[in-house]
Specification:
The structure holds two protein chains of two kinds.
Chain A: H1 3-26, E1 31-36, H2 44-54, E2 57-62, H3 66-75, E3 84-89, H4 90-98, E4 102-103, E5 126-138, H5 139-144, H6 153-156, E6 165-168, H7 174-187, H8 191-201, E7 205-207, H9 210-217, E8 229-233, H10 236-242, E9 253-270, H11 276-286, H12 289-299, E10 302-303, H13 312-316, H14 329-348
Parallel strand pairs in A: 1-2, 1-3, 6-7, 6-8
Antiparallel strand pairs in A: 3-9, 4-9, 5-8, 5-9, 5-10
Helix pairs in contact in A: 4-14, 7-8
Chain B: E1 3-4, H1 16-46, H2 60-65, H3 67-100, H4 106-113, H5 115-118, H6 121-131, H7 140-163, H8 168-176, H9 181-209, H10 213-219, H11 226-236, H12 240-268, E2 270-271, H13 277-280, H14 287-316, E3 317-318, E4 321-322, H15 325-329, H16 341-372, H17 378-392, H18 395-405, E5 407-408, E6 411-412, H19 419-442, H20 445-453, H21 458-487, H22 492-495, H23 503-511, H24 516-550
Antiparallel strand pairs in B: 1-2, 3-4, 5-6
Helix pairs in contact in B: 1-12, 1-16, 1-18, 3-7, 3-9, 3-14, 4-24, 6-10, 6-14, 7-9, 7-10, 8-9, 9-12, 9-19, 11-12, 12-17, 14-24, 16-17, 16-19, 16-21, 17-19, 19-21, 21-24, 23-24
Classes of the chains: A alpha/beta, B mainly alpha.
């Protein structure tokens, strides 16, 4: 080989190397970014599993609570911060769809998901988890005071439960909104108004958010407050045992099963992603058996995928509600703001 | 008694380069990291479609004429005014004692007073719920008390520090001339104190004006401030236009308040004799003086200590009894975070150190610019007021602004962890300016003139005369900046990466999860935050004392 062709060969090799590295960073990115809210959790082991399966590195971007995260996503619609958004629920779904956030994608694993969870017939979002917002009560407190546990939403308006119920403000809190929707699903519109008039007369306490309701006001919470009945989640009896800090035979918290309202949480491929392929793989992963089985203990939500085994503490204190109250996302979207503002005038002002 | 300030000051008349730097750096910093992102988000909100691409945005006029807006504005203004008055009333005795007397535990007290200031508002609000009698645990009374709890540190430290540098001989001379204690207070001490007092009042007012977590929890559902309403519109109702309009209203109010107080400060400023602290403070001698020290500090300790004791108790309450289980759990990986909770402590310290360095450099330059030129000069007054604005801007809107303004290279917040301390520094800079500038202004003109007459260059005057006196104020400011960065949550939550949470972010994550252990871990982290704050302020104070030794 003469020196000249060696030089040419080196130049070609260099050019190829540059081209290849160019492709490496532009054509098949190594990262896939999940944009989500504060409550999202993924253990290290599962992040690693995703990387092993797909060769993609999962990065998580959290921007505040569910509302903040969605506002952020809407602000960057079309030029997104990442590839997949997780954490829009039925209450917010109409906003997300109106904001044209997502590209349609229909994962194969959707075959294992009950169609009643599907939020959008066009598959712009995929249902990942659900949780039931329910009225919970402190069993010990009620027993100690000789009060029967409530059995229905009607009971809560009964003078026996006067001054015992704490709820979250539907204008500022997700479970608060779900409970308002539960009463609308149960009593109809405008029938819910007379129910809330009775609750108000029965001295219901309205607080800003779940943290205050459960941590500070609820007698079964960490501060042992003065209110033995609280709007929270169906997973709380299990969580109260799992995070008790000691072994418990029975859960101190019980669920009023008649009061539950279902919330489904969705993920979607963000429109404008530079890594559509990776984004789809991530949605597949969120719906995989492995990730779905981990969610109950990391996020206290239930899998949408069928046949996923629940952790032992969840089989002991079963959080599944067979027939929860529901409203369609479309109906919620069309009426939400009016309901909340009417509720505010009725209960708070 | 001092003389009225007027005219430019010969010795400090800045060289052109110095002037350019001391004005240019703060202006550029604020322009890039405050005005630009805020302008981006406001433009989006006020633009067509209300910025979020969803329907339902109201017109600007609808928002402004809405009776709800009027009510919210009125409540915001009066509660901020009342909170400021209450805070000053509660803090002034302690500021006096710390400014005049030397006693065992003085530095510890100064460090401890600052602890409430950095705590996450929701955590404190929950602690208050446990203490306040049920009759007043919700509503404006609770809000005012909590605001005083948080902001006492501002008055005690800003005013107390300044007080400790006022020559007591002026007041002694007045006494010799027959002035009674009240007359001395009214005619000597308050006029001398006025600049620091109005600086502290301005900060407390702005903090109360933009209060968020306290109003949400302790106000109950029927109270809202502009800040909570902005959040509500942007994040709950997705009406970004309404949020933008309200943000502008808030900025206008804040600008007006800042304008009034900077004017007030200019009017009130009286040049007194500034002396190193060690020449000013002395041990309490008479029984009356001792009683005063014990009484005013004891009262404050009770007021500040009770909620903190509740937090400590909560952190120990696990499994029906009390134990250190929650603290032990902090070292273990948790499903609440992508890092172990202890890593959040390290993150917070790193971020706060960087933020303090930024705040002290930028704010220090600004303080020289503000104090160095003729105080009636428009440029100086403008800079002074302008630097205060980030205190009064909505944290949530600024957070959104950062996300849309810095989303590509060269500044991509996703790839730039330093953006977190930058945001924290924005809030800390006004403190540095407010603490350093009044001291700088009060330096006796004659000292500078004498130095200049003896042939000192302007640079030498800064180094030999200004810096020693200012060194103490800078240290106090640095301590404050550090504390503020440790506690910042509103904007940090948008920008901190999930694998690098700060302490307040970690606390909120735990608080949002069910079960006793999670709650206890949240409170345990709050206690750690308290300890870290007290310790770092204490260390800063030690450094200061040692430095002051040879100055």
């Amino acid at each position: 080989m003469n020196p000249r062709s060696a030089l040419a060969g080196a130049a070609v090799a260099l050019a190829l190397a540059i081209a290849a590295s160019g492709c490496g960073s532009g054509g098949t990115p190594q990262d896939v970014v999940l944009v989500t809210h504060d409550s999202f959790v993924i253990p290290k082991a599962e992040r690693k599993a995703f990387q092993d399966e797909t060769g993609l590195k999962l990065r998580v971007l959290q921007s505040g609570d569910a509302g903040q995260a969605l506002t952020t996503a809407l602000l960057t619609a079309g030029n997104p911060q990442g590839d997949v958004f997780f954490g829009v629920d039925d209450n917010l779904l109409s906003r997300a769809l109106a904001g044209n956030l997502f590209d349609p994608y229909r994962p194969a694993a959707l075959a294992h998901v009950d169609p009643r969870y599907a939020g959008d017939p066009k598959h712009r979002v995929t249902p990942i988890d659900h949780s039931e917002v329910c009225v919970d009560y402190d069993r010990m407190w009620l027993a100690k005071h000789g009060i029967e546990p409530p059995r229905s939403l009607d009971d809560l308006a009964d003078p026996r439960y006067r001054g015992l119920l704490v709820v979250e403000n539907p204008a500022t809190s997700t479970p608060g909104l779900a409970f308002l929707l539960a009463t609308i699903a149960r009593y109809g519109d405008p029938g819910w108004k007379s129910y809330w008039t009775k609750l108000r007369a029965n001295r219901v306490l309205v607080v800003d958010g779940w943290e205050e309701a459960y941590d500070a006001r609820f007698s079964g919470g960490s501060a042992h407050g003065k209110y033995p009945i609280v709007v929270s989640y169906s997973t709380d009896p299990a969580a109260a045992v799992y995070f008790a800090g000691k072994a418990l035979d029975a859960s101190p918290v019980a669920v009023l099963r008649d009061s539950c309202f279902r919330q489904t949480e969705y993920a979607g491929v963000l429109r404008g992603t530079h890594n559509a392929n990776g984004a789809r793989k991530l949605v597949d992963f969120l719906l995989s058996e492995r990730f779905q089985a981990g969610m109950p203990l990391t996020m206290f939500v239930l899998p949408t995928r069928e046949g996923v085994p629940l952790p032992a503490v969840f089989t002991r204190f079963d959080p599944t509600i067979a027939h929860p109250l529901e409203l369609t996302p479309a109906r919620i979207g069309a009426n939400r703001d009016r309901w909340v503002s009417e509720w505010t005038d009725l209960v708070v002002r | 008694m001092g003389e009225r300030v007027d005219g430019p000051r010969g010795a400090l008349a800045p060289g052109r380069v110095w002037r350019l730097v001391s004005y240019g750096v703060p202006l550029a910093f604020l322009g890039l990291f405050f005005v630009y992102p805020l302008e981006e988000i406001l433009r989006r909100g006020l633009g067509p479609g209300g910025g979020l691409g969803t329907d339902g945005s109201r017109s600007a006029l609808d928002v402004l004429t809405d009776p709800v807006t009027r009510d919210v504005l009125w409540f915001t203004i009066w509660q901020a005014t009342a909170s400021t008055a209450l805070t000053i009333a509660v803090a002034l005795p302690a500021a006096y004692v710390l400014g005049r007397y030397d006693f065992p535990g003085r530095n510890v007290t100064r460090a401890l007073v600052t602890v409430p200031f950095v705590l996450p508002t929701v955590v404190v609000a929950l602690a208050f719920l446990a203490i306040l009698p049920a009759r007043i645990d919700r509503g404006w009374v609770a809000i005012l008390i909590a605001h005083a709890f948080f902001n006492v540190a501002v008055v005690v430290r800003v005013v107390g520090t300044f007080w400790a540098s006022l020559d007591p001989r002026v007041s002694d001379a007045a006494a010799t001339l027959g002035a009674g204690p009240w007359q001395r207070l009214r005619e000597v001490t308050f006029p001398l104190l006025a600049p620091a007092l109005s600086a502290a009042a301005a900060i407390v007012f702005l903090f109360s004006f933009t209060s968020f977590g306290i109003v949400l929890v302790l106000g109950g559902p029927s109270y809202s401030t502009l800040e909570t309403e902005i959040y509500n519109q942007a994040v709950r109702i997705f009406d970004l236009r309404a949020a933008a309009v309200l943000s502008l209203v808030q900025l206008a109010c804040v600008a007006a308040a800042v304008w009034v107080t900077t004017r007030l400060e200019t009017r009130l400023a009286v040049r007194g004799q500034i002396r190193p602290e060690r020449d000013v403070v002395r041990k309490p001698r008479t029984p009356a003086e001792k009683a005063l020290v014990v009484g005013s500090l004891g009262g404050l300790t009770l007021f500040l200590g009770l909620p903190l004791v509740v937090l400590v108790e909560r952190s120990l309450a696990v499994g029906g009894g009390h134990s250190f289980d929650a603290y032990r759990a902090l070292t273990r990986p948790t499903s609440a975070l992508l890092a172990t909770p202890w890593e959040a402590v390290v993150n917070s310290l790193v971020y706060a150190s960087v933020a303090t360095a930024i705040a002290v450099s930028v704010g220090g330059l600004a303080a020289f610019a503000v104090a160095g030129s003729d105080r009636r000069a428009r440029g100086s007054r403008f800079l002074d007021g302008f630097l205060m604005l980030p205190l009064g801007a909505s944290a949530v809107m600024l957070g959104f602004g950062f996300i849309i303004a810095f989303d590509r290279s060269p500044i991509d917040f996703r790839a730039a962890p330093w953006i977190v301390p930058v945001v924290q520094a924005l809030v800390a800079i006004p403190f540095v300016v407010r603490i350093v500038a009044p001291t700088l202004r009060s330096i006796d003109l004659r000292q500078r003139e004498a130095a200049a007459t003896l042939g000192a260059t302007p640079g030498q005057v800064r180094r030999e005369i200004d810096l020693p006196v200012v060194g103490r104020a800078v240290a106090v400011a640095a301590g404050f900046a550090f504390a503020i960065s440790l506690g910042e949550f509103g904007a940090t939550v948008f920008l901190a990466r999930p694998d690098r949470p700060t302490l307040p972010v970690a606390i909120y994550r735990f608080l949002g999860r069910p079960g006793e252990l999670n709650a206890a871990e949240a409170y345990a982290l709050a206690v750690v935050l308290m300890a870290v704050t007290a310790l770092s302020i204490f260390v800063v104070e030690r450094v200061r004392v040692r430095r002051a030794g040879w100055l």
